[in-house]
Design goal:
The protein is mainly alpha-helical. The chain has six helices and no strands. The longest helix is centred in the last third of the chain and has 24 residues. The N and C termini lie far apart (about 55 Å). This is Helix-turn-helix transcriptional regulator. It holds the Pfam family HTH_3. InterPro entries: Cro/C1-type_HTH (IPR001387), Lambda_DNA-bd_dom_sf (IPR010982). It comes from Actinomadura chokoriensis.
């Protein structure tokens, strides 16, 4: 049958994390917007391995990531979300950059940063 609610949650979460739209994902993955819409809504319909692999790759996951989720409802422990540490590193780096910009702006004459 498949755990399509779990697949929908992962797809929607990754799209939000990466700031990509359904149209952009359709273009990159080669999967139709109608099929993506059904996947995002968790419609219980069997999907081909190729479709799930294309979406997985487009979202930066290993090729079998979404298939694993559809079969098990989660990723097996030996297949962690490979991008999570990188995302955490980027968030930390962004926070550091914001602090640096604030310090630089605080040293500028009033109105110079506008």
């Amino acid at each position: 049958m498949g755990n399509w609610e779990a697949v929908a949650k992962v797809v929607n979460g990754r799209m939000q994390d990466r700031g990509i739209t359904q149209r952009e994902l359709a273009e990159v993955s080669g999967v139709s917007p109608a099929t993506l819409r059904q996947i995002q809504q968790g419609v219980p319909r069997q999907r081909s391995r190729a479709t799930l692999a294309a979406i997985s790759r487009a979202l930066g996951f290993p090729e079998d990531h979404l298939r694993e989720i559809s079969l098990r409802g989660r990723v097996t422990p030996d297949r962690p979300d490979v991008d999570r540490p990188a995302l955490d590193d980027l968030r930390e780096e962004l926070a550091n950059l914001r602090q640096r910009v604030e310090r630089i702006e605080s040293r500028l004459p009033e109105g110079a940063s506008e």
